[in-house]
Amino acid sequence: MGASTPKAPTKREGFSSRRVFIFAAIGSAVGLGNIWRFPYIAFDNGGGAFMIPYIVALLTAGLTFLFFDYAIGHRARASSPLAFRRLNRKTEFIGWWHMGINFVIAIYYAAIVAWSLRYMVFSFTNAWGDNPKAFFQGEFLKVADTPGVSLDFNMDVLVPMVLIWGVLLAVMALGVQKGVGAANIVFMPILLIMFVGLVIYSLTLPGAIDGLNSLFTPSWDSLANPDVWVAAYGQIFFSLSIGFGIMVTYASYLKPKTDLTGSGTVVGFANSGFELLAGIGVFAALGFMAQAQGVAVGKVVEEGTGLAFIAFPTIISQAPAGALIGFLFFGSLLFAGFTSFISILEVIIAGVQDKAGTSRLISTMIVIIPLAIISTLLMPTSSGLYVLDILDNFVNNFGILAAGLTSIVVVVYCVRALPTLRDHLNSVSSFKVGWVWMILLAVVTPLILGYSLISTFFTSLFKPYEGYPAELLLIFGWGMVAFLIIGSVVISFLPWSHKSRAAEEPPAPPVIGGKLAHTHVDDAALKAHAKAQGEEA
Fold first, then answer.
1. How far is residue 422 from each of residues 254, 289, 306, 447, measured CA to CA in Å?
2. Per-residue pLDDT tens digits for 200-258
3. Cα–Cα distance between 169 and 368 in angstroms, integer?
4. How many CB atoms lie within 10 A of CB 324?
5. DSSP H or E segment with residue 91
6. What is the model's pTM?
C-alpha cells in the first residue's frame, strides 16, 4: 500500500475582499466604548493634552498588538484556538480563553443592545418623563433595592432581547461573507451617517462650545501623571478589540495575499477617528445640558450607562427637536453595539466549527441557543444591572487584559514565535515590521498591561468593587475569572474531533527569498506541506 496522501483542506469561508474585512474590523472596534467611554476618559485625563498619550498608545501598542493578532490568525487560517494550536501546541489554551471571554461578554452585551433599541423608541415620546434616572433604574429596569440574584423577569427588557438574539441567529447562520460581512457593509455606513448627523445637530445647540472647551482645553500637568498614560493605553487596548480573539478570527478569513499592516493601520486610525468624533458630539450635547441647568460642564459629565441612559435622555427632553437627537444617539448605540456583537459571536462560532467540524448552521445554533437562554435568564431581571456591572468590570480588567498579557508573554518568551509572526507579516504586507515592532510588542506593551493589571488587581482585592456583596463578586467576578482560566486549560487537553480542521494540513508558511520564513515554533507539518508542493524546505 502506498504512502497516505495528506488530507486536502476543506474550503473555508472567508471575506470576499479586503474592503469587506476592513468594514467588519472597524465594525467590531467601533462599539459602545467609543461612544460612552472615550469622551469621559479624555475629559478626566487632561482634556486636549490626553491626545498626546492617546496617539502614542495607538502607535506603540494599539497597532503593534493589532498586527500581532492579524499575523496569528492569517498565518493559520483558523479560529483562535486552532490558530494558537498551529502556532504551538502549548499555546492552544489562549484561544479557548479568548472564546470564554467572548462568551461572557455576549451574555450581557445583548441586554445593552436591547436597551438601546427600546430607548430609540422612547425618544419619540420622552417616556422617561422628568426623572430619567428614576425611570431607567425603576420603571424600565425595575432594579432591586439590594444587589442579589433574582428571577423577577421584566418583559420590557426580555422582549427586545429575544428580538436581538433572533436577528443575530439569522445573521450569523448566513456565514462569514453573506452574514458577518454583509451586515457590516450595511450597518457601518448607517452608523456613520447617524453619528455624523448627531454631531452636526449637537454643535448647533446653545452651550455646545462650552462643552467642547471643557473637553479639549489641555491640562499639560497631567502628562506627568503615569495614570494618565495607563488610561490612554487602556482605552486603545479596549477600543480596538485586540487581545481576545476577534481580530485573530477576522484575519483568518482574509485571502492569502492580503496587506495586513496596511489594513490594520486603516482600522486603527478609523477607530480613533470615530472616538474623536464621539467626543465632539457627546461634549457638545453635555455643554447644552450644563447651560440649561446653570452648572459647569464637569457637573454633568458621566460615562457608561449613566451617560447613555440618564444624561442623554435629560438632554433629549430639554433640546429643541429632542426626538431627532434621541433617534440619532440611540440608533448609533444600537448599530455600534450590533456590529461589535457580531464579532464577539463570530469568535465562538468559528471555534466550535473548527473543534467539532460541524456546519455553519449547526455551529451557530450550538452557540447562540444556549447563550440566548443564559442571557435571557440573567439580564432581564431585577438583578440584571448588578450582574452586568460585575461581569463587565471583571471580564475587561481580569479577562481581556490578562489574556492579552499572557498571549504576548507566552508567544514571545515561552515559544519564541515572534520572528515567525514578523516574517509572515512582511511576506504579505505593504510596509514591513522589524526590530522596532518586536521591541514594542515584547517590552513596552507587556510592561503597560502588567502595571495596569497588577494595580487593578490589588485595588479590587482590598476594596470590593462598588461595595457589592462578597458572594456576588465571588460568583460573577473572581469565580468567573478563575473558571475561564481553568476551563481554557482543561479544554486545550481534550481531543479534537476527527472531523475537525485540526486534522487538516495547515497552510504553508510564507516564502521569503525562495526560502521558508524563519521560525522557532512547531512548523514540521508546515515544512512537510510546503515540500510536498515543491517549495524549498
1. 18, 50, 43, 21
2. 999 999 999 999 999 899 989 999 998 899 889 989 988 898 999 999 999 999 999 89
3. 7
4. 16
5. none
6. 0.90
Cell reading at 65: 498588538
pLDDT for res 507:
58
Indicate the DSSP class of residue 477.
Answer: I
Half-sphere exposure of 287 (CA within 13 A, CB side): 25
- In angstroms, the Cα distances linking 309 to 122, 317, 375 are 11, 12, 21
| Lowest mean pLDDT, pick from 43-52, 91-100, 109-118, 526-535 | 526-535
Q: How does residue 35 score in pLDDT terms, banded at 50, 70 and 90?
A: confident
CA distance 357 to 172: 17
Place of cell 468593587: 465
- Cα separation of 66 and 60, whole Å? 11
CB-based contact 438:418 (threshold 8 Å): yes
Q: Report pLDDT digits (tens) over 422-441.
A: 999 999 998 899 999 999 99
Whether residue 83 contacts residue 125, with contact meaning beta carbons closer than 8 Å, is answered with no
Instruction: Give the closest residue to 112 by CA, choosing from 423, 341, 426.
Output: 341
Q: Which of the given ranges, 29-33, 415-419, 531-535, has the highest pLDDT on average?
A: 415-419
Tell me the average pLDDT across 66-88: 95
User: Nine-digit cell at 248?
Assistant: 485573530
DSSP assignment string, 365-424:
HHHHHHHHHHHHHHSSBTTHHHHHHHHHHHHIIIIIHHHHHHHHHIIIIIS--HHHHHHH
Q: Which of 110, 108, 276 is nearest to 199 (CA)?
A: 276
Contact yes or no for 112/335 (Cβ under 8 A): no
Distant-in-sequence, close-in-space partners of 134: CB < 8 Å, separation ≥ 6: none
| DSSP symbol at 500 | S
Q: Which three cell numbers stand for residue 416?
A: 519564541
Q: Give the chain's count of helices (H) and strands (E).
A: 26, 2
Contact 524, 504 (CB under 8 A): no
For the chain, the 3-state helix, strand and coil shares in percent, each to the nearest 5, are 75, 0, 25
Read off the pLDDT of residues 346-357 as tens digits, 9 standing for 90 and up: 999 999 999 988
| Amino acid of residue 108 | Y
Half-sphere CA count of 13, side-chain side, radius 13 A = 22
pLDDT of residue 506: 59
Instruction: For residues 405 and 384, give the distance between their C-alpha atoms in angstroms, rounded to a whole number.
Output: 30
> What phi, psi does 78 have (nearest 5°)?
-150, 165
- Amino acid 467 reads G
d(CA 29, CA 520): 31
Q: For residue range 465-478, what is the model confidence (pLDDT) as tens digits?
A: 888 999 999 999 99
Judge whether 216 and 286 are in contact, CB under 8 Å: no
Number of other residues whose CB lies within 10 A of the CB of residue 332: 28
C-alpha dist (Å) from residue 345 to 14, 102, 110, 241, 245:
16, 7, 11, 13, 11
Helix (H) or strand (E) holding 338: helix 322-356
Angle between helices 322-356 and 80-87 (to 10 degrees): 50
